[in-house]
Amino acid sequence: VQLVESGGGMVQPGGSLRLSCAASGFTFSRYGMTWVRQSPGKGPQWVSAITGGGTTYYSNSVKGRFTISRDNAKNTLSLQMRGLKPEDTALYYCARVPTTFAITITPPRDYWGQGTQVTVSS
């Protein structure tokens, strides 16, 4: 199983970024996928998730600003982020949701990619 995130960077408050996650080594369409973020000195925070069929879920902190999507034909997961705030600064990870886990719970770290840094600062 391999998950490779990309698309992070530094943006000003109010800006936008689009994160991508390339998945391989498993049947992508059969699994829920999630985005998790972690800031220095803080624990992981569940951000958003999407089922294999495309049902989406968002944390209250990003609802209305972030959009999760997936392309099962291309084995890719995306997170469109708009209206970014300094508190969105974190390392963002995509993760596969184990079949025994609820999709709105942070999966174990073994299921995460290597992360991509998002920094929101003026």
Low-confidence stretches: none
Q: What structural category do the secondary elements indicate?
A: mainly beta
Overall shape: it is globular
**Oligomeric state of this protein:** single chain
Radius of gyration: 13 Å
Number of helices: 0
- Largest sheet entry: 6 strands, mixed
* Fraction of residues in β-strands: over 45%
Percentage of residues assigned to helices: under 10%
Strand order of the largest sheet: 2-10-9-4-5-6
The H-and-E topology, N to C, reads as EEEEEEEEEE
Please count the beta strands (DSSP E, at least 2 residues each).
Answer: 10
Mean pLDDT: 96
N-end to C-end Cα span: 37 Å
Describe the protein in words.
The chain is mainly β. The chain has strands spanning 2-6, 9-11, 17-24, 33-38, 45-50, 56-58, 66-71, 76-81, 90-96, 116-120. It has no helices and ten strands. The strands form two sheets. Strands 2-10-9-4-5-6 form a six-stranded mixed sheet, with no helix packed on it. A four-stranded antiparallel sheet has the order 1-3-8-7, with no helix packed on it.
Give me a quick take on this structure:
This protein is 0% helix and 45% strand. Strands 2-10-9-4-5-6 form a six-stranded mixed β-sheet, with no helix packed on it. It has a four-stranded antiparallel β-sheet with strand order 1-3-8-7, with no helix packed on it. The N and C termini lie far apart (37 Å).
